[in-house]
Amino acid sequence: MSFQLGSSLLDACVLAVLAREDAYGYSLTQQVREIMDISESTLYPVLRRLQKKEYLTTYDQPYQGRNRRYYRITESGMEKHKELTQEWVEYKQKIDSVLLGGKNDE
């Protein structure tokens, strides 16, 4: 996709993935990559920011002799996810209206 995607949309995508299940960094990157082009080096600052806002928590689990850091959405993260999802629906309807000339049937 050639459209620039803002940090709010990236936050929404990360929170949406984590709303379904906990994930470790690489797995999370792969899931978000299905939606948009993103690298791990881009994702980790996003995760730290969401964690600082208390939308995410972390825990470690051993995996093949090493610890793997998992991310889990918090209750306030779920609320933010719902808020961003609603904002996306409204934004998408407006964009569809402009791009499709009022034809937003899908």
TrEMBL record:
It holds the Pfam family PadR. Gene3D superfamilies: Winged helix-like DNA-binding domain superfamily/Winged helix DNA-binding domain (1.10.10.10). Residues 14-82 form the Transcription regulator PadR N-terminal domain. It comes from the Bacteria. This is PadR family transcriptional regulator. It comes from Ornithinibacillus hominis.
